[in-house]
Amino acid sequence: MVHLIEASIQTFMKQSALCKKIAEVPGIGPITATAIVASIGDATQFRNGRHLAAWLGLVPRQYSSGGKSRPQGISRRGDTYLRTSLIHGARAVLRYVKSKTDA
Question: Where would I find the Transposase IS116/IS110/IS902 C-terminal domain in this sequence (predicted)?
């Protein structure tokens, strides 16, 4: 059963150009890349990366008017599975970046 699920994820990865682009980011593998595509789909609905991160619950939401920026708390309202996968990927990258000697 597990092999069938892994095979279907790999098949989808090979067919989706968007998944391939996302998987090029360090710390993001096939499972996280397909989860991003499944959850977000077309990312053009967000004005920038910060809006996407706020939607996921990774950064505080911002409400501003009259030139005053008022950051709110981190909501944690987004997709819990996707947020957790991204955080684990970032931790994996940070763990191995200490041993690198290049710039």
Answer: 20-96
Domain boundaries, the chain: 2-97
In the predicted model, what is the mean pLDDT of residues 27-50? 89
- Rounded Cα gap, residues 60 and 55, in angstroms: 9
Counting Cβ atoms within 10 Å, is residue 52 exposed (0-12), middle (13-18) or buried (19+)?
A: middle
pTM of this structure = 0.76
Q: HSE, CB side, 13 Å, CA atoms: give it for residue 52.
A: 16
Q: Are 11 and 68 in contact (CB under 8 A)?
A: no
Q: Tell me the two tokens of residue 90.
A: 């970032």
Distance from C-alpha of 26 to C-alpha of 15, rounded to nearest angstrom: 20
And the tokens for 21? 């682009």
